Amino acid sequence: MPNNSKDESDEHPQRPAQEQPRQPGIESEMEPAPRFENPELRGSGRLVGRVALITGGDSGIGRAVAIAFAREGADVAVVYLNEDDDARETARLIHQHGRRCLLHACNIGSQTACEEAVAQTLRSFGRLDILVNNAAEQHPQPFVTDITPEQLETTFRTNVFAMFFLTAAALPYLKASPTPAIINTTSVTAYRGSPKLLDYSATKGAIVSFTRSLASQLAELKVRVNAVAPGPIWTPLIPATFPADEVASFGSDSPLGRAGEPWECAECYVFLASEAASYMTGQVLHPNGGEIVNG
Questions:
Q1: How far apart are CA 147 and CA 77, in angstroms?
Q2: Where are the alpha helices (DSSP H) in 189-293?
Q3: What's the pLDDT at 6?
Q4: Cα–Cα distance between 67 and 35 in angstroms, integer?
Q5: In terms of Cα–Cα distance, which of 282, 269, 135, 129 is closest to 204?
Q6: Would you list the domain boundaries of the chain?
Q7: How far apart are CA 193 and CA 197, in angstroms?
Q8: Alpha-carbon distance values, 293 to 187, 193, 196, 288, 289 (Å)
Q9: Where does residue 254 rank: exposed (0-12), middle (13-18), buried (19+ CB within 10 A)?
Q10: 42-232+261-285 CATH choice from 3.40.50.720, 1.10.150.530, 3.40.30.10, 3.90.110.10
Q11: Taking the C-alpha atoms of 52, 132, 70 and 290 in order, what is their torsion angle to the nearest 10 degrees?
Q12: In this structure, are residues 290 and 255 in contact, taking their beta carbons and an 8 Å threshold?
């Protein structure tokens, strides 16, 4: 069971070199465990009575968002690929906050799977108020000619197509909510690029444009659409993507000199989902350790 107690001596521990064989990665195998919750934070009922669907909600930023939403009173549908043990642990943590959790495993690159995820959420909870499009994959390649058509399509299907599929499926129910919100996860790479993550960065740039365009389209319906652009965050995607030596130094080049923890992103999502952000749409928040970005 992950230890998320806060101790000043190990607040930002050294990360040993490590790798995982495949994406999306397993949180329970990471050393040290990502900090998905800050125990000093207390809920204030900002999301009481609401239902959220979160893709990639089993681990990493998605898990932190799911737990933070539950702390604020929301029930949560966790949509994930195949990381069953991580997903069950996330559900246990949500239940600790007294909220309900639906676990739904599927490949969101499929339109049919996205429609079923939304339908299952409605069957379980009877409503949908918040959609968090968070799941993503990335596959480093040294040069543009090394990116195969298969990789290109897979990356765009998971990172971009799924947002279209899920948004379209969820919209009829979001429109019926008194406080609807869509929050998309983009990345600092959308603004500064990443030479080894060319296709991934391209999807994240697309998500920024998707967010702004969708916000304009849905403004008349009072459906707010915003995004979060994390910098280097300690999640399972990191050891499942990069070689061990890069993992050991991950995030050390940020202005704050370290990688962020998932909970440090989650508060952005809570804010954007809550009525505190009622006059915000088409915007992007940047929990990135101090990197200055344009746009």
A1: 33
A2: 189-192, 198-218, 244-248, 262-273
A3: 46
A4: 11
A5: 135
A6: 42-232+261-285
A7: 8
A8: 11, 11, 19, 10, 11
A9: middle
A10: 3.40.50.720
A11: -160
A12: yes
Q: Compute φ and ψ for 86, nearest 5 degrees.
A: -60, -40
Report the percentage of the chain scoring pLDDT > 70.
95
Q: What angle do CA 182, 128, 44 make, to 5 degrees?
A: 75
The answer for residues whose C-beta is within 8 angstroms of residue 228's C-beta and 6 or more apart is: 183, 184, 185, 186, 265, 268, 269, 272, 284, 285, 286, 287
Residues near 78 by beta carbon (within 8 Å), at least 6 away in sequence: 54, 57, 58, 62, 66, 87, 90, 91, 94, 101, 102, 103, 104
Q: Is 258 helix (H, G, I), strand (E, B) or coil?
A: coil
The residues that are catalytic are 200
225: helix, coil or strand? strand
DSSP 137-157: -----SSGGG--HHHHHHHHI
Q: What predicted TM-score, i.e. pTM, was given to this entire model?
A: 0.92
Q: Residue 180, preceding bond cis, omega within 30 degrees? A: no
Find where tokens 């070689």 sit.
243
The number of residues making up the chain comes to: 295
269: left (phi over 0), alpha (psi -120 to 50) or beta: alpha
CB 76 within 8 A of CB 70: yes
Q: What is the pLDDT of residues 57-76, one digit of tens each?
A: 999 999 999 999 999 999 99
Q: Yes or no: say if 205 and 190 are a contact pair by the CB < 8 Å rule.
A: yes
